[in-house]
Write a structure and sequence with these properties.
This protein has 2 domains: about 230 residues, TIM Barrel, CATH 3.20.20.10; about 110 residues, Elongation Factor Tu (Ef-tu), domain 3 (Beta Barrel), CATH 2.40.30. The chain is built from 10 helices and 18 strands. By secondary structure, the protein is of the alpha/beta class. The two termini are about 15 Å apart. Helix content is about 30%, strand content about 25%.
Length: about 350
């Protein structure tokens, strides 16, 4: 069985780096745990860092967080389906919202459970995922702020999650202005202006973050150390907290070009033939991981000489060239991962998870 490993020390280094970054600027932040897919082993490692605010898009994952550490503030980070409101209020202390009727239902459920439920109102700033249009925000807030058992603790936004719209100083100034307008009009305090996710960190590093932004929701940069503006690992952080170890289950010297009548494979693809490769051979290895677990485009071989050729549902095929390193059946090959690749592996029941 292939193994996904989490490096405990590298995760701690990344967390400490980010904590110092936010502490220097007196900015609150929470860790997004949805990548971990509720995995108890990995969540324990995360919580052992001293994290006191966890964000997730799956209620079952927040339930696991509460079982492991009751005093952690849990935040549900997508609009909740009406049938799930009861469970959401039970396991999430805070939720991100953009629908008035949903907030009314949350208010009723919070009353039934004897709770005060906190919400962050999401504002549309251009990426066209969730969020109230700015022109409607004051009217929206007016209908929300006096609902029983509901406390508005912030305004927030998401960028770069759907259409790739990047955060900018101007967009975040606008978000801060919305907060000031609401506070002046209604005489209410809104503690947080939640600027978004890891993609906004570069603005803070380069001193382009407006003063009013005081809350972040961080996932990808914690786990991959990445600056999402230039897609490079930030100096002082680690990009390989997660690694995949996959075992070689076949290794043969084979032709480099398939032969026979070509048709679509199960993924609907037709092989393209490079005629210059006719008559040539290479060592090809089959690994015990496949499309059910991960799309190969999210895998980065540790060995730069390895070329990923493709995958079927349960097997990954790689080209080892002349196999200078002498790989053999039973050896494991290591891969670094992109975010969506790690997410797929963590969601797969066929991949072992381990802490190193």
């Amino acid at each position: 069985m292939a193994v996904l490993t989490l490096d405990r020390e590298k995760l701690r280094v990344n967390f400490t780096f980010l904590k110092a970054l936010f502490d220097q600027r007196a900015i609150s932040w929470g860790v997004v745990s949805k990548l971990l897919c509720g995995n108890k082993l990995f969540l324990q490692e995360l919580l052992s860092l001293g994290i006191m605010e966890v964000h997730d898009s799956r209620i079952s994952n927040l339930a696991m967080v509460k079982r492991l550490k009751k005093d952690v503030q849990t935040v549900y980070i997508k609009p909740v389906a009406s049938k799930n409101i009861g469970k959401m209020v039970e396991f999430a202390d805070v939720s991100l919202n953009s629908e008035l009727e949903t907030i009314r239902l949350i208010s009723k459920e919070a009353a039934l459970q004897g709770k005060m439920h906190k919400i962050i109102i999401m504002v549309e700033t251009g990426d066209l995922r969730e969020g109230v249009m700015g022109d409607h925000l004051v009217d929206f807030y007016e209908q929300v702020f006096d609902l029983p058992h509901i406390e508005v603790i912030g305004l927030g936004t998401n960028l770069n999650c759907l259409n790739g719209v990047m955060p900018s100083t101007d967009k975040l100034i606008q978000l801060s202005l919305y907060k000031q307008i609401i506070e002046l009009k209604f005489g209410k305090n809104i503690p947080w202006v939640s600027a978004g996710t890891s993609v906004t960190i570069p603005l803070m590093i380069h001193h382009q973050l407006p003063q009013g932004i005081n809350h972040f929701r961080i996932g990808e940069t914690l786990y991959f150390g990445v600056d999402l503006f230039d897609e490079k690992v930030i100096e002082g952080m680690h990009g390989d907290v997660f690694q995949l170890q996959a075992e070689i289950i076949e290794l043969q010297e084979k032709p480099m070009v398939p032969h026979g009548i070509l048709a679509s494979n199960p993924q609907g693809e037709v092989a393209e033939i490079d005629e210059s490769l006719y008559g040539k051979t290479s060592f090809r290895a089959i690994l015990d991981v496949g499309l059910l677990d991960i799309d190969p485009k999210y895998l980065i071989p540790d060995d730069p000489e390895i070329v990923i050729l493709g995958a079927s549902s349960d097997m990954l095929i790689v080209n080892l060239g002349v196999n200078e390193k002498g790989y053999k059946v039973g050896d494991s090959l290591s891969f670094n991962l992109k975010y969506m690749g790690a997410l797929s592996l963590l969601n797969s029941n066929y991949i072992e998870k381990s802490v190193v």
